[in-house]
Amino acid sequence: MSAARAGLVTLLAVTGCAGSNGSPVDAGADFAIGPQVTHIGPAATTCCMVTNGAGQVLYLANPIPSMPDAQGRDQPANGELHLANPFGADFVLAQQVPAFGYAFSPDQKWALFLTKTKTLRYALQMAPLEGPELHAAAQVTAVADGLQNAALFQQAFFTPSGRYLVVGVLPPKVTNSPDLHVIEMAGGRDVFQLVNGAFDYREEVTPDDTMVYADSTASTTPGVPSVEGLYLVHLGAAPAVPPARVDTHVTNFSTTADGAKLVYTRSNGDLVMVGLTQPDQLTLATDVTAFSLGASRRGPVVYTTSDRALHVRPLIQPETVTTPPSSIDLFSPVALSPDGQHLYYFQNVERQNSLGDLYHVALPPAARAGQPSLVATRASTVDFHFVGDRLVLLSDVDGQGTTGDVTVASLDGSNLRVVARGAALGEVVTAFPAPAVPAATGQIGYGALDLGTQVIDPVFAHLANATADFTLRPIDGSRPIVGALVVGRADLLDGGGEVQLSHKVHAGAWVVSDDGYVIVYAGGATWSRIANNWIGTLGLYQTLVDTAPAPPVLDGVTELGPIVERSLFVDAPMANPPGIYFVHY
Amino acid sequence: MKQLRGPALVCLALAGCSGPSPWPSTVPARVAGAEAIGRLDADVPVDAVLAMRLHDEALLASLVEAGTVLMPAEFADRFAPSAADYARTVAALRAQGLAVEPSPSRTTVTIRGRADLVEAALGTRLVRYADRAGVFHAPTELHPIAEIAVFVAGAAGLDDAGRWWSHRAAEPLSASGSAEPVDLNTMYDVTPAVGLGDGETVAILGTGLPPTDADVDGYITKFALPANRKGQYAQVFLGGPNRDPVGLAQNEYGENLLDVDMVLALAPHADIVHVLTATNSPGLFADGIQYIVNQLPQAHQVSVSFGTCERVAASEMLVMNQLFRQAEAQGQQWFFASGDNGTDGCRDGKGNKVLSVNWPSSSPYVMSVGGTQVVNSVEAAWFAGGGGQSEILDKPAYQIGRTPNDGVRDQPDLAALAGTPGVAIYGQGRVIAGVQGTSAAAPMWAAIWALLDAGKGGGKGFSDGHLRLYQLGASGATGLRDITTGGIGDGTTPGYPATAGWDLASGWGVPDVAKLVTQW
Fold it and tell me: pLDDT tier at A22 (50, 70, 90 boundaries)?
């Protein structure tokens, strides 16, 4: 479940199963005990929360909206960075920290954050989270200088294993093109570096910490051209084992999910696959302009050729489907249905509005395999979900990429039907709520009698009649979109109605709980010039039960953290007192 | 199959023009955040453009896909409404008391009249609104009378919601010394014999705040150019009005002024279609390029003054090259500024001495335009002009044997004035002097290409522009004036000098247009 950016949520709840103790699980939260709301940290204007579930929170106090840079681009707000926990412990980590210039490590043992240096750039600090207190002496400086005034996730990423942070670092007197540094999360050690602007190239890391990356020979001699190439290095062995070059003139690449294969295109249009675990090489196709391994990165590989035909082939077998020329937009994403029988792509893509005309192609052994058919016009390219045997998408997206109509279709694109209008784009989320699985006890459990899950009808929630006001710039960088928050249940798919929870909610200012049974939102949103954001009143709704529990009393709310075990952090800069709250229901 | 939107999305730059208006809705998004403060006074003059419905769009799309060059008259005959239907529409509009200006291609109709008459004809109300950015007017939904609705696909120009005032406070400098149109025509030998670009269309791809009518008119009037903004200059807004930060959009506004003015300076009779995306990224290098390639085939020359570091662009190169290749095949030549940081195309500064170039100017399917400056009355390579060797793209056939034997795409292909003394442009009621950059050179070459196309291409464009250019350059033809002094660099790494023949500082050099048209 995505955290705070839920726009349309499809909830598949599980009922009727027995828990490990044999007692039935109800389909709703128990609200016998009223919600608890606790203010933590200073009474101050706050923003830009990053949470560690419901365990800890990083946030800015007294944030200052920044001026645009010399090119007129928005810069992030900055403020005093705090680390707090639900029990009221609150520590100041640094001053003048850019919004979201901080994160928790995947193992939740470190808080990472930027601190301003004498060069007016930023250092990367790591503060250990073990123990009740934080002391400056215990902090580790992972990178002394060279990070930029931007969110941390814009200039660094964790490897899938969580063992490393790959970060871009500007050397002295370099204004663009950061070098690439690899920080070992176990202790903050800088274990691998690539210079001459290497971070500007693409890189990808497999689950076993093999980094595949593009780089160049970086010529400084006039007349001797640099040569761009594709390399790989095992971070666990670097730098003792140097990188190996795979190929040159590589334009794009992707690794398979298991880290066994590397697929890439060359500037001459060759589509090539090589093995990462054992040496082999195969040219899959020529004259290729783009390719995808799909969201799962398990194949088949889908690629387009210069005649704009779409081709599908398993990674190690001959091609299975080719559509007619001019089928696909050069900027189209592609998607496969979970059963691998249906392929979807777009024509007439407008990238800045994230929309295009959606087409469907059946894959073998279907009778009409390879024959494209139009599913919906002006469909969102970023809201595309499979719910059982249905496709849920947004169609008829407006001219600014702000809203579209929630539309349901069969997997082959037939039986298309609009079920709701004006949902905010980019906020379609699918959730599969279920009772939390008890932690393993070492005891033998008997589980559900039928050893299967019984999927019940979905529940939908989304913003309706949403509008955007691009003259407003929320301090947390969120999109300036507001709309009515509505919820529909299973009958929505067959013409049923929806329930409006609030007439005005800021996009992102509502969140679904980890078990899917509860929606928490900031309703009745109004723009606050002091908070530089929309503020609302905390509301609470049970998705599957027709009861309205007493909501926690809290006004002036802007941001909501993820709900974990019925707890969440709430940013309420216009509450009394203002600041961060911990809510448990 | 591509779906051409045709002229329905073209908004001629009339007073109050704000962007594309899908039929029947022309209500700008800005209305959603504004408060209505009353009706537009009945006697306020209103201009608007109605786009006619095209027929057989499938055929049109297939011709575009096939790279078929369509002349405007041919376009009208095959796709526009019949002359009789068009005449009926014109008559119906005139019967509403409106002044009507037909178009030869029968794809649009320009109407002018009092606000109340326009409201009656189009079945709308013109409402005044106020918001944080000021007061503007816009129509409600349109419900035109039946005689109009049957043949008309859309309307544009009924609101002024997008006409935002720039806060960019560029202080005017003395115009003395800057290159004005007459200077540029003299420098590049643009003689009356080569014409003024009649029948040609130059597309400009930009983003941010657009030039206002007054800006364009100001340049035309100030420098006494034989141009007519209303008849020649159109703006197309892709994705709605700008939605980038205002500061960024204002910076880009200056770029937009420069691009338009340089085309007007050298090809004052050419039509200009200024395509402006709502966002800098991904608008410019995705929607903008795709739109011009697929939906403005009549533009045989396109100027773009934006670019980026080549090393961040590898993943998009195959897709972009495919579009540029399609454009060239259909007789549409793209001109990209090569950059203003010499051999440091990635603008890294002194801490990184690696040589780098700009993208998309390094694409083998576009013309990369470098820069010159005038020193002691001699035109030399401009030290800040972009040039060098691609690190990823192979040498195109047309460069083999013509440029260094390095196996890679070398740039620039050409050059024009980008440095001292700069050029004069016009904005916000003033002449702005001393404007520099290869951003000036690229639209100059697009304009020159229009003159070349009008003179030698029969107005159909060249699908072999690079080949011809390199053959001509290698022959030593005087239509390309070689730049042999000066050079480019970044102040840190040794750069490239301008030498006899093609070089990495100025390509084949600058044009002598009169001779170029003769020798091409």
Answer: very low
Instruction: Report the number of distinct structural domains present in chain B.
Output: 2
The 3-state DSSP class for residue B157 equals: coil
Q: Which domain holds residue A502?
A: 8-435+457-584
List phi, psi (to 5°) of B399. -95, -10
Q: Is residue A447 part of a domain?
A: no
In a domain, B175, yes or no: no
A446 part of a folded domain: no
CB A378 within 8 A of CB A396: yes
User: Are A219 and B354 within 8 A, CB to CB?
Assistant: yes
Task: Confirm whether B163 is domain-assigned.
Answer: no
Q: Based on the domain organization, do B230 and B338 belong to the same domain?
A: yes
Does the residue A440 lie in any domain?
no
Same domain for B205 and B115, yes or no, is: no
Between the ranges A230-239, B119-128, B454-463, where is the mean pLDDT highest?
A230-239
Q: Are B248 and B369 found together in one domain?
A: yes
Cα gap B444→B425, rounded to integer Å = 13
Domain count, chain A: 1
What is d(CA A560, CA B17) in angstroms, rounded to the nearest whole number?
A: 42
What tens digit of pLDDT does each residue of B385-429 get? Answer: 999 999 999 999 999 999 999 999 999 999 999 999 999 999 999
Q: Domain range spanning residue B252?
A: 181-519
3-class SS at B189? coil
* Angle made by CA atoms A579, B245, B139, in degrees to the nearest 5: 110
Tell me how far apart the terminal alpha carbons of chain A are, to the nearest angstrom: 19
CA of A329 to nearest chain B CA: how many angstroms apart? Answer: 8
Which chain B residues touch A288 with a CB distance below 8 Å? 318
B425: β partners: B432
User: Are A399 and B29 within 8 A, CB to CB?
Assistant: yes
> Closest approach of chain A CAs to the CA of B182, in angstroms?
32
Backbone torsions φ then ψ of A243, nearest 5 degrees: -65, 155
Opening angle at CA A87, ends A81 and A93, nearest 5: 20
Residue A208 lies in a domain: yes
B26, B94: one domain: yes
The whole-angstrom separation of Cα B470 and Cα B477 is 10
- Residue A239 neighbours by CB distance under 10 Å: 12
What are A456-468's pLDDT values in tens digits? Answer: 567 788 999 999 9
Query: Residue B273: inside a domain, yes or no?
Result: yes
Nearest residue to A301 (alpha-carbon basis) of A264, A268, A266, A338: A264
Q: In this structure, are B205 and B143 located in the same domain?
A: no
CATH code of A547's domain: 2.140.10
Contacts of A278 (CB under 8 A, 6+ apart): none
The order of strands in the sheet holding B35-39 is: B35-39, B126-131, B134-139
**Nearest C-alpha in A relative to B285:** A351
Alpha-carbon distance A355 to B390, whole Å? Answer: 33
> What is the model's pLDDT at position B186?
96
Q: Which region among A438-447, B289-298, B340-349, B478-487 has the lowest average model confidence (pLDDT)?
A: A438-447
Statement to judge: residues B394 and B489 lie in one domain = yes
Q: Is B169 inside a domain boundary?
A: no
Same domain, B79 and B200: no
Cα dihedral B446, B450, B455, B460 sign: positive
Q: What are B274's strand-pairing partners?
A: B204, B235
Residues of A in contact with B493 (CB under 8 A): 220, 222
Residues 27-86 of B with CB under 8 A from A: 29, 32-33, 65
Distance from CA of B34 to the nearest CA of A (A): 10
B196 and B148 share a domain?
A: no
Q: State the nearest Cα–Cα gap between B234 and chain A, in angstroms.
A: 20
Selecting from A173, A268, A347 the residue whose C-beta is nearest the C-beta of B351 gives: A173
Tell me the Cα Rg of chain B: 23
- How far apart are alpha carbons A342 and A412 in whole angstroms? 7
